[in-house]
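W.,

You were right to be curious about this one. When I first looked at the sequence I had no strong expectations either way, so I just let the prediction run and decided to look at it fresh. Below is the sequence, 292 residues in total, followed by the output.
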Amino acid sequence: MIRDVDGPEEVRARLEETGYLVDDGLAVACFLALRLHRPLFCEGDAGVGKTALAAALAKALGAPLIRLQCHEGIDASQALYDWDFPRQLLHLRAAEAAGAVDADRLESELYDRRFLVARPLLRALETCPSVLLIDEIDRADDEFEAFLMELLSEFSVTIPELGTLRAEVPPVVVLTSNRTREVHDALKRRCLYHWFDHPDFDRELAIVRRRLPGVSVRLAEQVTALVQKLRSEDLLKPPGVAETIDWAEALNALGAREVDTELAVATLGSVLKYREDAERARGSLLTALRDG
């Protein structure tokens, strides 16, 4: 079974086999989410590994990853289900052409399961096992949060035309938030919570080495140290671990075995995504390279 893990250490080992490194707190949170059938609410800056955790869990548990990307204005029909109106219309026309006269029977046929389009939430309820990623919940509005809170409480949904559909085994649920706004306490209370901070130098270096084994040790160390320094600057968007990996990969693709000034400046777009940040960081980056 997907949740048959003996403890946090087994969760850690399975995740590390996929290349995803976890600390003690996250290993415990993942284990409890599996054992207690509780959603895991992951909050932190962009690029610190929240979304990657869901993908790693799916791979470690041998389950499909079903992703719901939240956005402003998302509603239940986009997240849960919708009716396939074109197919219903074709069926109606075909039935009329065949001389169907039983209106009640024709209506019941129109709202058959075969005409239902399952969106991510319904697919997760019907797929066992599965890992459901609800990504960037902070981008959705209050109404969608309330709807989601009810669904995650019961892991079931009532479709008026078909009745109640309930998950045989609740999916493993990972919610992520970049904290662009506060998510309501009522939703958080239904979840286990884990804050994703930027890793220290040793941990970040280990992640880069694990993800990019072909990069030289010297290059990985230098890039990690430079990103750690950039995070101490007053930037609009401090780089995450994802940007550290991107920068190291870009420099390695250019044939670099270590960081030099020209390549570092030329590839700043791999790690900093705002012009103001690049301009602010260029001077301190050059100083760090000169001193280091």
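Here's what jumped out at me. The beta strands are 40-44, 65-69, 81-83, 116-118, 131-135, 156-159, 163-166, 172-177, 192-196. And, maybe more interesting for your project: The chain is about 50% helix and 15% strand.

Coffee later to discuss?

I.
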